[in-house]
Amino acid sequence: MEKTAATEDDNVVFADDSYDVEQNEPRPRLTFVPTERPERTEALQRRQTRAMSMSSISSIRSRVQPASAAAGIPMEFRTLSFQVASSQDVNNSRPIKKPRKISKNKNIFKHVRLGFGVKKDQGKKKDDLKRAQDADHFDKMDAHILDIPNVLKEFNTSDQGLTPEEAAARLARDGKNALPHRRENYFKKLFGYVFGGFCSVLWIGVIIFFICWRPLGDPNPAAYNLGLAILVLIVILLQAAFSAFQDWSTGKTMNAILDLLPADAYVIRNGQTVKIPSTDLVVGDIVKVSIGNKTPADMRLLSTSGDVRFDRSMLTGESDEIEGAVENTDKSFLETRNAALMGTLVTNGSATGVVVLTGGNTCMGRISLAMSGVKEAPTLIQQEITRFITIIVCLTVVLACAILFTWLGWLRKDHYAFINTVAMLNDVMGCVVAFIPEGMPVMVAMVLLLIAKRMKNNNILPKGLSTVETLGCVNVICSDKTGTLTENKMVVTTVAFVDAQFQADAAIELHTTGGAEALNQLHRAAVLCNDASFDPITMDRPVMEREVQGNATDGAVLKFAEFAKADSTRLVYDERPRKYQIPFNSKNKWMLTLHDSNAGGSSEKSGFLLLAKGAPDVLLPKCTKYWSMKENKVLTLDAAAKAEFSKMQERLSRNAERVILLCQRDFHSEEELGTNAFGEDVMEHGLEDLSIIGVFGITDPPRAETASTVAACRRAGARFFMVTGDFKLTAAAIARNVGIFTHPEEPDSYETIANGAAYMNKAGEGHRPGDMLLLDGPSIAKLVDDDWNVVCSYPEIVFARTTPEQKLRIVNELRARDNVVAVTGDGVNDAPALRAADVGIAIAAGSDVALEAADLVLLDKFDSIVEAIRLGRLVFQNLQKGIAYLLSAGSYSEIWPVILNVFFGVPLPLSSFLMIIICVFTDLFLSMALIMEKEEFDLLTLPPRNHKKDHLINFKIYGQAYLFVGTMETISAHAMFFLYMWRAAGIPVHELFFIFEGYSEGFHGYTTEQLTHFNTVGQSVYFVTLVIMQWGNLLSIRNKRMSIFQADPFRKERRNPWLLGGILASFVIAVFVTMEPGIQRIFGTGTVPIEFWLIPLPLALGVLMMDELRKLLVRSFPNGPIAKIAW
Question: Which helix (H) or strand (E) holds 635?
Fold first, then answer.
């Protein structure tokens, strides 16, 4: 029901409530319609509530643009178009000399929003001003209104085109013809690389180590402190370099995606047609486009082949193609047919036009610019890493403060000779260095890069590496239909009349035998009311194998007609050539053609044969008669006949067939053919008193892999929803065919929810009659917040007749209820939902804006998304393994030496330098081997990760890394340190505790130099013990539950040669660090006796065996206490 608002502008009409995606609440939706044109009002209302899902042609070119499955005009394009139209109406009502001011049009922009509904960080006034400026930008366009000579004069060009010098000057003045991008703040990015994450804490270490060197170290500054400062600085630069490399890799992938877009254009320069990069086009260029080309800029058409058509689905969301024209057909530049907009596909014919707008000034450029300011939300893995960094930094600060306060309150007074100011600062920073796993950021970057490479091998381009892991959390997939779930190949399968129905082959056979006049009439209408044609190059092929120029629906009807009677498409058309037509477009939802009444030609006085083809719900109300197959004559369309037609339409729709209705009548006009008055007469009176001829049931068969893909996604725990613009019964039938609907009974509907039969609260408590739900656009508009609790609980849903606003609302409602949502799309109209989703998935042949809004791009089949989910989960598994490995030695086993030194007076068992070597070098190489691990079991059998509960690092992993493996390594490494001190110096363990400054000249008869030597070698022993024990940890942690005997690193299924490479690399580093004289002199390391290289080997084996015992207990007692706390 509509309600009219009393406003200053009588053209403002409040329609039913829509949804405000920015404020998360219902708001009145505005449509702008001339009230003096009721028929146009009706068309616009239909356009808002439904859409015809059609397909673009298959081009002879290599890059084909599939039709967008979304319905309706996207809000950003539609709003902009309405703003322009309304602004023009207001301006036309004013005195000509009165200056136009945007501020006077506040009523126009008060509730209408240009953009994507996700700019929560921008003020409303700023948004309104930007929208007003966009509308004013196109409002001032008059290139489509001027005649051709004046257009060329205004842009200072001619039909011979620009000279190279003129083009170069304009290119230098206006810039490249490319979509605008958000300007990178390289200083901010560099700052983030160098000071983000752990680096912010490490910089404090650099400063303190420099201060300890000088001035605190004067007059004899220690080279050790300078070396540590430089080493930590190198660590920071290493982390920053890997972060930059990760971003560079992402940018490289983006360039690979943009390379998929058309790069060249044919332009007339100095009278010669040349091919140039489309980015070099300038205003005033004369450009030629033909079938299969994408329009490279906004153009005003100068000439056409007479049959040129443009697919604006990338902008409007509707695959109803627009016929190009030379003369103006609308006051708005965005609606007129003599304008070709950037990014639209030429589906038929050819045209020449003059470029009037380029780059960011084009319609697509304005929409892209509106998106460029949207702040990217952190991905789930970024949130997890940030959480982990926060925990580690907080623990580090607590321990550092504990050391500082202990020194201030106790050690500074009682044991100043043991820990002076420099020593205290070294201990504090040793705590920082010990507790922070410096190698983790590098390991994370390498994991993501590796998985991204694997994805690329599976024909998936991930734009953001951190988004890869989010796929493992996806529990809802919202997929469009046409071209994604289906093959985008239309075929006529059923021929039906009001009182009869035939399979296509049976109808062809009956037509061949003759005697059925209704079939003859339908065949004639199928040929004449058709904009498709056969590609001349393929005419020697069988009919069903020929290439078709035109949209897929017309192509299917054309092939049917030609198959029914050879060469009939040419003969019938020659007998009754087309005199006039109104093409299928977004304003009428039907096409209309006029032909001579009599075969072979006749005078206009005898009238015309009018044929109409379109959606039944649009044309049926215009019909009063029908061709009866049984009676073989025209009968009155009474209530009984209408009921039969409705049953037939429902029957075909339930069989997943798209229903196309063909009608005819004799048309007489007092106006002269070719005049504007004639066209107006056809528009006003043409669709009156129509006779139904018959209908075609057209199917778009599902892809072969669709059913298995849906089943695999469901097995992985992801609910698979369809979001389409098709009629709901057709959508439901296709959903059954591909396995989205899995039950035989009828699905629940809006009435089920509205009547209270289904109810649910946000906690998931409630009741619903079934597991399937079918909603269409009008029903979605009626849903309130409590209703969405019910909707989001259904495991199987089909959303039909949806608009882009509703698609965006669906995504937002699902995400608001803790779902992780993936969305597929290819058009500009899909960009809002793609960006709002946790994972936006675009088709490679999609629009520039969709590719930029998406997170992943599918290069081939849709089933590659299953492998993407698998790899996304593998990312999380390998990250957990890598971090658990790093924490054992690189954090827990390094902090205890500092604690023993500060609180128990033990000579420091491990130096800060060796801590850094473990974190950044020895452990890092081994963790890199872990990231090469294959999946331990079929990860698709696991449910999606709950991103609010199943964290990257949890208490179970801390327990495994710290309390289990970390404790074994810490005790063993300290034991080796004390063993060396006893065997080399004869100092028992108990004498090293609480010795503080007693460990100095004369202790056990040793000099200071000798005691220092014992300590440095002991520290190296501790270091070597950790390095070797980590080998055992590496072999155990690569499997969470499986035994090494089930998944050793040598069998083909789990083979990982990188493990041996990592072990060898860590061994070489350990030898170099402990035996290189230069490092010994600067950083205080010592040569480790051979026996202390051998003793840790059985200790490493012990770590492996202890973890094998843990795994055995978990497998044997899956519900036991060990299993409950195991990671």
Answer: strand 633-636
Q: Calculate mean pLDDT across residues 1046-1053.
A: 82
Give the integer Cα–Cα distance in Å for 657 and 1079. Answer: 77
206, 385, 871, 862 alpha-carbon torsion, rounded to 10°: -120
In this structure, the number of other CB atoms found within 10 A of the CB of residue 217 comes to 17
Distances (CA, A) of 1061 to 715, 886, 925, 950, 1066: 37, 17, 8, 32, 9
Instruction: Say how far apart CA 875 and CA 607 lie, in whole Å.
Output: 71
DSSP helix/strand/coil, 692:
strand
Question: Among this protein's residues, is 480 annotated catalytic?
Answer: yes
Q: Cα separations (Å) of 354 from 154, 180, 260, 1057, 1114?
A: 11, 21, 25, 61, 73
Token reading at 217: 């170290």
The tokens describing 387, both together, are 């959480």
Q: Which of 642, 620, 629, 663 is nearest to 518 (CA)?
A: 629
Q: Helix H segments across 844-953?
A: 848-853, 864-887, 893-904, 912-917, 923-930
**DSSP H or E stretch at residue 640:** helix 639-654
Structure tokens at 416: 């100043």
With 50 as the cut, is the pLDDT of residue 320 above it? yes
Q: Is the pTM of this model over 0.70?
A: no
Please name the residue ranges forming H helices in 739-783: 750-754, 777-782
Residue type, 483: G
CA distance 251 to 1109: 46
Residue pair 554/529 in contact (Cβ under 8 Å)? The answer is: no
Taking residue 156's Cβ as centre, other Cβ atoms within 10 Å add up to 11
CA 1053 to CA 1047: how far, in whole Å?
8
Distance separating alpha carbons of residues 1074 and 336, to the nearest angstrom: 78
* Rounded-to-integer distance, Cα 259 and Cα 867, Å: 24
Residue 644 has pLDDT above 90, yes or no: yes
For 188-225, how does the pLDDT look when each residue is reduced to its tens digit (9 = 90+)?
888 888 888 788 888 988 999 899 888 888 888 888 88
Contacts 24+ apart (CB under 8 A), 740-745: 740/710, 740/796, 740/798, 741/772, 741/796, 741/798, 742/771, 742/772, 742/796, 743/770, 743/771, 743/772, 743/796, 745/770, 745/772
Instruction: Give the number of C-alpha atoms closer than 13 A to the C-alpha of residue 1001, restricted to the C-beta side.
Output: 1
| Upper half-sphere CA count for residue 519 (Cβ side, 13 Å) | 24
Secondary structure element (H or E) that encloses residue 460, with its range: strand 460-462
Candidates 949, 937, 820; CA nearest to 467 is 820
Contact in structure between 556 and 698 (CB atoms under 8 Å): yes
pLDDT per residue over 831-850, tens digit each? 778 888 989 988 776 666 67
Please list, in sequence order, all residues whose beta carbon lies within 8 angstroms of the beta carbon of residue 21, skipping any fewer than 6 positions away: 117, 118, 805, 808, 809, 812, 832, 836
Output the DSSP codes for 258-279.
Answer: HTTS--EEEEEETTEEEEEEGG
In this prediction, residue 594 carries a pLDDT of 92
For 250, residues 6+ apart whose C-beta sits below 8 A from its C-beta are 463, 464, 465
Pinpoint the alpha helices (H) of 471-585. Answer: 504-513, 517-528, 552-564, 568-575
Six token digits for residue 939? 């990860």
Structure tokens at 353: 């036009």
**Token couple for 342:** 């950037």
Q: Measured between alpha carbons, how far is 26 from 18 in angstroms, rounded to an integer?
A: 6
What is the rounded CA–CA span in Å between residue 789 and residue 768? 11
Which of 139, 285, 298, 480 is the catalytic position?
A: 480
Burial 886-915 (b: 16+ CB within 10 A, else e): bbbbbbbbbbbbbbbbbeebbbbbbbbbbb
